[in-house]
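pls design
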């Protein structure tokens, strides 16, 4: 109790702790971003193999070594050097090693410290924005999930159900006590979020014969609606569409990206959701005030 009172009365310490926690979680999110799609692919392969043979008859060697978010230990993909604890300190280890493997000196992608720093900064900002309490602590979970989904979608054009679906249900539970919005608004947000993009998907497919987005986008917008309420969905869709269009046009004009190459929409939905988390109500109220 004394610790909670101290954190409540000392916002600087609470913000700093949330920032440090975000850095550590960001290191774990790098593992999730890298391994979860491979775990999904492995599961799909096993399911396909089960159509031809009884998987219970497969030997452990045929099934391959265990691979999940815990094992095997993180290692350099070039030389196999296992990452030691001192080499896994968020951001600092990357800087100390000069962005290279400690053994073979192969360059390490700068995205690892970027994810860690981004998670730490957004976590600290959430602590400052909401202050000590349930809103800040639950907002951290929302932020961490959106960061993981953003980078997974960038890499694979996938939004895993193992993240989007629990995020949706957790949003409804969080708002059972009205943390970010009322429960009715949260339920309406989940339904409206899913049906909105589902309708766009089918309208586009019936018109062009092509699929304009994946089902994961429906679930992500539904999760955002469950966390923040139906009122912020128009803002979220507008912001994500504008940013996605600008990025797509930029890639086509300056990076030579083909028009037929799909661009993942999940990262822009996540960005719109983050903006809505911090400023959605203020922006919506300001807009309605001007419109009226």
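designed seq:
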């Amino acid at each position: 109790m004394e610790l909670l009172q101290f954190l409540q009365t000392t916002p600087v310490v609470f913000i700093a702790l949330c920032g440090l926690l975000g850095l550590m979680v960001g290191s774990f999110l790098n593992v999730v971003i890298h391994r979860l799609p491979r775990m999904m692919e492995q599961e799909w392969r096993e399911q396909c193999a089960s159509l031809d043979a009884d998987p219970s008859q497969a030997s452990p060697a045929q099934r391959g070594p265990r691979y999940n978010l815990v094992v095997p230990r993180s290692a350099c993909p070039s030389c196999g050097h296992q990452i030691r604890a001192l080499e896994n300190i968020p951001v600092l280890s990357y800087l100390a090693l000069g962005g290279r493997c400690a053994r073979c000196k192969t360059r390490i992608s700068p995205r690892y410290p970027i994810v860690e720093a981004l998670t730490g900064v957004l976590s600290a900002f959430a602590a400052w924005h909401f202050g000590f309490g349930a809103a800040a602590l639950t907002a951290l979970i929302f932020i961490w999930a959106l960061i993981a989904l953003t980078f997974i979608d960038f890499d694979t054009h996938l939004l895993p159900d193992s993240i989007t679906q629990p995020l949706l249900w957790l949003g409804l539970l969080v708002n059972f006590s009205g943390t970010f919005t009322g429960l009715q608004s949260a339920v309406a947000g989940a339904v409206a979020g899913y049906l909105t993009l589902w309708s766009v998907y089918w309208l586009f497919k019936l018109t062009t014969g092509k699929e304009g987005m994946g089902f994961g986008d429906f679930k992500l917008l539904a999760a955002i609606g469950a966390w923040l309420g139906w009122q912020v969905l128009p803002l979220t869709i507008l912001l994500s569409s504008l940013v996605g269009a600008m990025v797509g046009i930029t890639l086509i004009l300056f990076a030579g990206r083909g028009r037929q190459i799909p661009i993942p929409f999940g990262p822009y939905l996540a960005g719109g959701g983050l903006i809505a988390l911090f400023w959605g109500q203020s922006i919506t109220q300001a807009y309605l005030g001007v419109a009226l």
